[in-house]
Amino acid sequence: xxxxxKGDVDGSNNQARHITHETRIQFCLGxxxxxxxxxxxxxxxxxxxxxMPWLKNHNPLIDWRRQTI
Length: 69
Prior knowledge:
Blueprint: E1 21-29, E2 32-40, H1 52-58
Antiparallel strand pairs: 1-2
InterPro entries: Peptidase_aspartic_dom_sf
């Protein structure tokens, strides 16, 4: 697993300071189901962050005003 030391998306320091685990999760967005590998760390108020590789691969419809996918 590649090590990343990043801040949270709100600009604060990451509480865990690093990725603690890697796991495969299943989740739904709308009527689509996904099965993805995810890195586990403390994110602050965010439940999940979908990175640019995921967004490029799945090309979801994003409503920027409602801040939803």
